[in-house]
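Title: Request for sanity check on Branched-chain amino acid ABC transporter permease prediction

Description:
We are preparing a figure and want to confirm that the structure record we downloaded matches what your pipeline produces today. Could someone re-run it with the sequence below and paste the raw structure tokens into this thread? We only need the token string, no images.
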Amino acid sequence: MAGIVVERLFVRWLTPLDPLYNFLFTFGLALILQDLMKREYGANSQPYPRPSALSGTVDLGLFTYPAYQVFVLAVSVVVCGAVWAVLARTRVGVIIRAATERPELTRALGIDVGRWVTPVFGFGVALAAFAGVLAAPMRAVNPLMGSDLIITVFAVVVIGGLGSVFGSVAAGFAVGIVSALGNYYVPSLSQTLVFVLMAAVLLWRPAGLFGREEASR
């Protein structure tokens, strides 16, 4: 609901302008919310317990892995697959993509763009909140728990290609693997490796791994 309110009160007026205005507004809003949370609850991390049913480990054959991380991975795959299926394989997905990518043409076809953009924006905020809840037991809860991920998420979107759901998912897993290997072998360069990967992809394909294919459809 909070995402819908923000979209109706602020974001919708910035949509006709350069996308940079929306980016700056939402980034500034995130900073304001972070400071409000720090003022109310402090900046110290608070533990967020894992469900007791997922507190053990899972034997995956070659190694064991915490059950909660396996659960998060499985839920992430299901959610990503469901969102991709809706956007790529249903009439609702076609309308959503048209309303967000070509709003003028969509209005010309008699579709109320505002009616579709608002709930989609709210759904996106809900997905981000859901991801935060899943990550909380692994990262603890604090007002800045998402700030260190913003740049990484930006890298994921750039690597995958703007407008490509599949590209973002594939790039997310690739960046996760690169970060994990970096943390294991060269911890001091783990974050740098993500941007080395992004630079390499942009040199090879400026539109991202799947950006051009998505744009041509």
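Thanks, this matches our download. The chain is about 75% helix and 5% strand.
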